[in-house]
Amino acid sequence: MAESTRPPVDHVVDAPLTSPAATQGLLEVFRHRYLLKLLVRREISARYSGSFLGLIWSYINPLSQFLIYVFIFVLLLERDRTENFAIHIFTALIVVHFFTETFNAGTRSIVRNKALIRKMSLPKEMFPVASMLVSLYHVAPQLVILVIACVPYGWTPDVLGMLAFLLALGIIMLLGTALALLFSVANVYFRDFASAVGILTNFVRFSVPMIYPFTLVEERFKGFSEYYLYNPLAEAVLLVQRAFWVGTTSDPAATAATELPDHLFTRGLVMLAISALALVVAQLVFRSLEDKIPERLN
């Protein structure tokens, strides 16, 4: 009769104890791509649930805003200082909406999904990241409206312009996610942060060249305009204006030379690197505080 090869009952595996919760941060989020996709779909479906027009509203909203800006700034105020001023504003509005929606929704994301966090062990960074992706999804309808508005003015896509647009998206994706991570965990400890973020985002559209051109900043503040460009959001707006608004003007080359700052792409790459660094710092802070999130949500 053959001897049993089973290990003794009291055999103990010599391995360190680890938490069942995910500990790999943002890398772990993208290893759970299926869950991330479900979260994004759920957020989008919830936003339009019970609506007759559904996703069509995501086109109606940016179109209505564009028409409002045309009426107020072009027809009513006759702002002819800046050529095609309505498009100038709308290009900036895309950046501003993407950032503020990511920041606001990301800050509330963990508290809003507390029931799911209690039931499942999954990387909690997934919720701010999902908020950013939902905001990115809503950039597409705005972009469609913008292109339709630009084409009658003779705009055609060019390689540098598309690179500028992608660079701007990268800055907002990284910076918005970084701030969403930081403030989402802070909001778990003190719910006041959600209200504070709502107030902070009110100032965003005035801190970028949206309702005024960058040349006005140069005229009024002279050499101090360099400090204005330390704002990653302002840099992202200028990059999107290079991608779309510049091409609608009567002389795009002259517009780019006179209406935009020098070394636009170099500055954009620097801001992309700073935004990436901010995301790394935000991830470290988030990981240092995430273990107490479940008990704080009770």
Automatic annotation (TrEMBL):
Compartments, as annotated in UniProt: Cell inner membrane; Cell membrane
Domain ABC transmembrane type-2: residue ranges: 53-289
Domain of life: Bacteria
TM region positions: 52-73, 85-106, 127-155, 161-186, 193-212, 268-286
Entry membrane topology: Multi-pass membrane protein
Main location: membrane
Keywords per UniProt: Cell inner membrane, Cell membrane, Membrane, Transmembrane, Transmembrane helix, Transport
A Pfam entry, by short name: ABC2_membrane
InterPro entries, sorted: ABC2_TM, ABC2_TM_bact-type
The family this protein is said to belong to: Belongs to the ABC-2 integral membrane protein family.
Name of the protein in its database record: Transport permease protein
Species of origin: Nocardioides cremeus
